[in-house]
Amino acid sequence: MSILKGINDLLIKALNLLIVIAMTGMVVLIFAQVIWRYVLRQPLSWSEELAQYLFSVVTLFGAAILFRESKHINMSLLVDKIKNPGTRKLVNLAANLFSLIFLAVIIYYAFPMAFLILEFEVVSYSMEWLMMGWIFLMVPVASVLSALMLIEATIAALQLKEKEAN
After folding, report:
1. pTM for the full predicted model
2. What is the pLDDT of residues 149-164, one digit of tens each?
3. DSSP codes, 121-160
């Protein structure tokens, strides 16, 4: 567990930096688009698309951070009505298990698709230097990171349950 925690600690630092860079890039690109479109009357053809990709970075990799902190939206309406703490933890454990299965399916199918798109050398419509395979690769990579974070959070919850039992 401590090895996984150490790895995830490093990954969280890298993900936080990545998200700050992506958010900053989004703000700069959108601001530049406004200036170029309304002040210079020469709209940029690529800035909106790149801002969308940066938003995807924030969303997908931010999800991994939320898995680590167990802050994803869950069925709190249902879970909060469960009075028995053991049953509540069992429901949360089942939700984590289903999430892990879902992430595994995404990883299994998305990696080959992203590599296929890279192999075909598909490029962005407005940015010929950007290969779309790298954009598609965000999904399975973020899913692997999310799975690592979710495994750690699940193990921590199970260990907490064992400590409460003792």
Report:
1. 0.89
2. 999 999 988 887 566 6
3. T-B-SS-TT-BHHHHHTHHHHHHHHHHHHHHHHHHHHHHH
Distance CA(19)–CA(61), nearest Å, equals: 7
Rounded to an integer, what distance in angstroms lies between the CA atom of residue 139 and that of residue 45?
A: 25
Residues 142, 125: Cα–Cα separation, whole Å: 24
Q: What is the pLDDT of residues 77-89, one digit of tens each?
A: 677 788 888 888 8
Amino acid at 19: I
* Strand partners for 123: 131
Instruction: List, as one string, the DSSP characters of 59-71.
Output: HHHHHHHHHHTT-
Which of 120, 123, 121 lies closest to 46 in space, CA to CA?
123
Rg of the chain taking only CA atoms, in angstroms:
20
Tell me the three state secondary structure of residue 42: coil
